[in-house]
Design brief:
alpha/beta, Rossmann fold, Four Helix Bundle (Hemerythrin (Met), subunit A), 3 domains, 4-stranded parallel sheet, elongated, binds zinc ion
């Protein structure tokens, strides 16, 4: 299995540290607002990767955090905490804000069929461990206290920039010089921040009453839950490679003297109609809105129709295409199930379709850095071949069984909700006939209504009148 490693910018053979096991840590959202679709895309992508690893026989310890303190506005080193700003605006406790948006995220994850993580650590529950971690970094001379705050000394860590490809001299040239900064070097970043009087979330520490910097949480929580040594996969969004992931590496590797993670797997962003999606740009969509409009199955299929490392675009066309593809898969699976129920199972051991070929192609695609669009196209090819062989009367009961068993494997990774028969797209002309009949019925023109019912029957549709209107079923 090849995985593209951001650390080396190339695909590498996946070799787990412990045979049969994978430790995976994914940077989660800062819970001061609803998730946006970029998060949805990221966590669906990580879910597919996790499920494919499980499908391949690995036991995956999957961890995702929720950031509930320390992430400052504009990802800055000084200023307001994102959660506190929201809490002050809404006059609610920041922890309540966090709980509210964590619940909202969980609703989205559940709707999108994302398997729950083994742990969802939160920095507010890790303050003691963070203080201890920082103390050890100070002892090792990688960090220093200054006026109640503690900073990581970037020049002490020569590998700084290895993930994002930034060079410290270039970073220095572009660094913003903060007035009255307590830092020895403008590139140093905060591990602990002394709180001002208005700050709500604050804790005692050996240095001041304060709160942790944003990056320290992921180092501390991954060490605590995956062990203080290298783990296999660190996932996250591309946009957080610098400074967030880079700083995680510096903190963890300075402390342990070992590589933090062997593979850095970062997903790409989602645009809206060709423009960057962002709350401040006013064009952000959250998963709830997308699911409401298009359905969760369609949104999930839309996400896996792109490779996780390519930029996605949220637009009407791409979502309509996903709707069509989900209908295509649904129709096919429903059709195969129905046909298998009707067929008499003679020729049990004869199959026309070479399933080894499809399974092999699917595995090849997924083994090549989780190439989901290619893996999907393997299934679409199977659909085409099946329909073709059906017209030649060559499909056997064993073929149908094989199709369903192959689909179950594919869908244990893709987790797509198949549309039931009655939700499949009804052609517009059929819909029109049904509406005309409804009108005729309301006008008490029963002869016309009956004749339209017969017409629908001729076209293979049964119409039923319910308290919520008519219901069409395909025969
Ligand atoms: Zn993180």
């Amino acid at each position: 299995m090849l995985i593209y490693n951001k650390l080396t910018n190339q695909k590498e053979e996946f070799v787990p540290i412990n045979p049969g096991k994978v430790g995976m840590y994914v940077c989660g959202p800062t819970v001061y607002d609803h998730c946006h679709l970029g998060h949805g895309r990221g966590y669906v992508s990580m879910d597919v990767i996790r499920k494919y690893l499980e499908f391949s026989g690995y036991e995956v310890k999957y961890i995702m955090n929720y950031t509930d303190v320390g992430h400052l506005v504009n990802d800055a080193e000084v200023g307001e905490d994102k959660l506190e700003r929201r809490a002050k605006k809404e006059k609610i406790d920041p922890i309540e804000i966090a709980n509210f948006y964590i619940q909202s995220c969980e609703e989205d994850f559940e709707a999108l069929n994302i398997k729950p993580a083994i742990f969802y650590p939160r920095p507010t529950k890790y303050i003691d461990k963070m203080i201890n971690f920082i103390e050890r970094l100070i002892e090792k001379d990688f960090a220093y206290e200054s006026n109640g705050s503690v900073y990581f000394s970037v020049e002490k860590f020569p590998d700084y920039g290895k993930l994002s490809g930034r060079k410290t001299d270039e970073l220095l040239a572009g660094a913003r010089v903060e007035i009255d900064s307590d830092k020895k070097n403008p590139l140093d970043f905060a591990l602990w921040i002394k709180a001002d009087e208005n700050h709500i979330l604050k804790w005692n520490s050996p240095w001041s009453i304060g709160y942790p910097g944003w990056h320290i949480e992921c180092s501390v929580m991954s060490c605590d839950l995956l062990g203080e040594n290298t783990f296999d996969i660190h996932g996250g969004g591309n946009e957080n490679a610098f400074p967030h992931n880079e700083n995680e590496i510096a903190q963890s590797e300075a402390l342990t003297g070992q590589r933090m993670a062997n593979y850095w797997v970062l997903w790409n962003m989602v645009n809206t109609n060709g423009l960057k999606m962002g709350k401040s740009l006013g064009n952000a969509t959250n998963p709830k809105e997308a699911i409401k409009k298009y359905g969760a199955g369609t949104v999930r299929l839309w996400i896996i129709s792109s490779h996780y490392r390519s930029v996605m675009d949220f637009n009407e066309n791409s979502l309509n295409q996903a709707t069509k593809n989900l209908e295509k898969i649904s129709k096919f699976i429903n059709h195969v199930q129905e046909k298998l129920a009707k067929i008499n199972s003679t020729n049990e051991d004869l199959a026309t379709i070479d399933f080894d070929y499809y399974q092999e192609k699917f595995k090849e695609a997924m083994d090549d850095d989780f190439n989901t669009p290619l893996a999907l196209s393997v299934f679409y090819d199977l659909i085409t071949q099946t329909y073709k062989l059906e017209t030649e009367n060559k499909i056997t009961a064993l073929d149908l069984k094989n199709i369903l068993s192959f689909w179950n494997k594919v869908n244990s990774i893709f987790s797509l909700e198949i549309m039931p028969r009655d939700k499949e797209e009804i052609p517009q002309e059929i819909m029109q006939l049904a509406k005309d009949r409804e009108t005729a019925r309301k006008d008490k023109n029963f002869q016309e209504a009956d004749s339209l019912r017969d017409k629908l029957k001729e076209r293979g549709y049964e119409i039923e009148d319910t308290s919520e209107g008519f219901k069409l079923t395909k025969n």
